[in-house]
Design brief:
Elements: E1 2-6, H1 10-21, E2 25-29, H2 33-40, H3 51-60, E3 64-67, H4 70-75, E4 79-82, H5 97-109, E5 114-118, H6 126-135, E6 142-146, H7 156-162, E7 166-169, H8 173-183, E8 190-193, H9 195-226, H10 230-238, H11 259-272, H12 278-291, H13 293-301, E9 309-313, H14 328-338, E10 342-346, H15 351-358, E11 362-364, H16 368-372, E12 377-380, H17 385-388, H18 392-398, E13 403-406, H19 413-418, E14 422-425
Parallel strand pairs: 1-2, 1-4, 2-3, 4-5, 5-6, 7-8, 9-10, 9-12, 10-11, 12-13, 13-14
Helix pairs in contact: 1-3, 5-6, 9-11, 9-12, 11-12
Bound molecules: uridine-5'-diphosphate-glucuronic acid.
Uridine-5'-diphosphate-glucuronic acid binds near residues 149 and 251.
């Protein structure tokens, strides 16, 4: 099957590569010529473990190509995937400018009846609108299928072949059957729905996962005062199959390009239909507070942060990605700098992205020893393996004051105590001073 994928961002690229891997002939289109030139050489514009090997393999097999020529590619195929970004507007709603521009290009390029498959996360009702928008500009018959994406960054190559379901939403039976056939090679259960249901499944799924995270973080905050260890609480709750153990890891909140954007967008969708979605607003508010939790605790230790050297262990919004969008690290750094602290960061792959935001206001360390050197406190922001595996002696030998605030629950409290490290981790009690206090 000849398939065109428009947009080689995170979703488009993984989709295109995966469709070629299961045997389809796929042409991925992007307007960015540099990106396309790199992709032709199997250089991925995103950091995603395993993706480059798959790109190379499928280019060599002759099933995968990259181009800037949308018109030629679309003219050659009756199935066009749309995977362009829907960034957030100032008011929290989704910006549909890119998707409309791509839809207009499709309308002007098709030369046969065409199925447009929308991968982008779009507000309920958008697919129906897009269908009319394209149909009004072409004599050929347009079918539209909503096929929301559930991949996680960093493990996308795994997720794309092991998803729990593939959701296909459409009002057009023939189009649904064709998409079902295209997706058969994934051997993942296919769930067919109405167009609007598919759109809502995407927002509701992300919002529900965000709710789980904010919920467990609130419980963690209560544990700190009331007693109880959040790790045990999460584990015990997760054993109930009705609850499930996934997304119950307490910490410093969710970040990334999806949960923050999609919770706001869903709130906006609700407002637009006159519904007050107070629950999701609380989830969003709790997350904002949680992202600054470590700084709050730090301030209970050092009443004045002016001139204090603070090390950030990790800045990516989660491990295995260089993505820092909506990461807790960014608001933490902003607040530390506002308080007059000196900030040094270490991240295996995301440091350059953070440097681009803060420039010379922060120091980028190349190693863990360097970031810890002479630090007055270290904040664990991202649970990279390199960070989880830090030898505790590194903290005591490198830091001016071995104060470790763990936002991702990666260290063991009693081991930290034994090593003479003042330690706090979210949801396991207050900061325990195991060294003299320096104010
Ligand atoms: C999320 C969803 O998990 C995907 O299913 C979805 O396809 C994707 O958004 C999207 O809409 O494109 P992603 O943003 O890549 O995926 O990252 P997650 O692994 O879900 O993590 C999101 C954030 O939640 C991270 O900051 C992570 O640290 C945090 N998190 C996650 C927790 O704080 N606790 C948890 O238990 C799990």
């Amino acid at each position: 099957m000849n398939i065109v994928v428009i947009g080689t961002g995170y979703v488009g690229l993984v989709t295109g590569v995966a469709l070629s891997e299961i045997g389809h002939d796929v042409c991925c289109i992007d307007i960015d010529a540099d990106k396309v030139a790199k992709l032709k050489k199997a250089i991925s514009p995103i950091y995603e473990p395993g993706i480059e090997a798959l790109i190379e393999k499928n280019i060599e097999a002759g099933r995968l190509s990259f181009s800037t020529d949308l018109k030629a590619a679309v003219a050659d195929s009756s199935v066009v995937y749309l995977a362009v970004g829907t960034p957030q507007k100032q008011d929290g709603s989704a910006n549909l400018d890119y998707i409309e521009a791509a839809a207009a290009n499709i309308a002007q390029s098709i030369v046969q009846d065409t199925i447009v498959v929308v991968k982008s996360t779009v507000p309920v009702g958008t697919n129906r609108y897009l269908k009319e928008f394209i149909q009004n500009q072409t004599p050929y018959r347009i079918s539209i299928v909503s096929n929301p994406e559930f991949l996680r960054e960093g493990v996308a190559v795994h997720d794309v072949f092991h998803g729990d379901r593939i959701v296909l939403g459409a009002d057009d039976t023939a189009a649904l059957e064709k998409l079902e056939m295209i997706n058969q090679g994934f051997q993942i259960p296919i769930f067919k729905t109405a167009l609007e249901s598919a759109e809502m499944i995407k927002y509701a799924s992300n919002a529900f996962l965000a709710t789980k995270i904010s919920f467990i973080n609130e419980i963690a905050n209560i544990c700190e005062k009331a007693g109880g260890d959040i790790r045990e609480v999460s584990a015990g709750m997760g054993m109930d199959s009705r609850i499930g153990s996934a997304f119950l890891q307490a910490g410093i909140g969710y970040g990334g390009s999806c949960f923050p954007k999609d919770t706001l967008a869903l709130n906006h969708i609700a407002k637009n239909v006159g519904y007050d979605f107070g629950l999701i607003q609380s989830v969003i508010d709790a997350n904002k507070v949680q992202q600054l939790k470590l700084v709050k605790v730090l301030k209970t230790h050092y009443s004045n942060l002016v001139g204090k050297q603070i090390a950030l262990l990790g800045v990516a919004f989660k491990p295995e990605t260089d993505d820092i969008r909506e990461a807790a690290s960014e608001v933490i750094i902003e607040e530390l700098l506002r308080c007059g602290a000196k900030v040094s960061i270490f991240d295996p792959v995301a440091s350059a992205n953070m440097k681009a935001v803060f420039g010379n206001a922060i120091h980028v360390a190349d190693t863990i020893s360097e970031v810890l050197y002479q630090a007055d406190a270290a904040l664990v922001v991202t649970e990279w393996n390199e960070i989880k595996n830090i030898q505790l002696a590194e903290f005591t030998s490198q830091m001016s004051h071995p104060v470790v605030l763990d936002g991702r629950l990666v260290f063991d409290k009693s081991e930290m105590k034994q090593a003479g490290i003042s330690y706090y981790s979210v949801g396991t009690g207050e900061l325990e001073i195991n060294e003299p206090v320096y104010i």
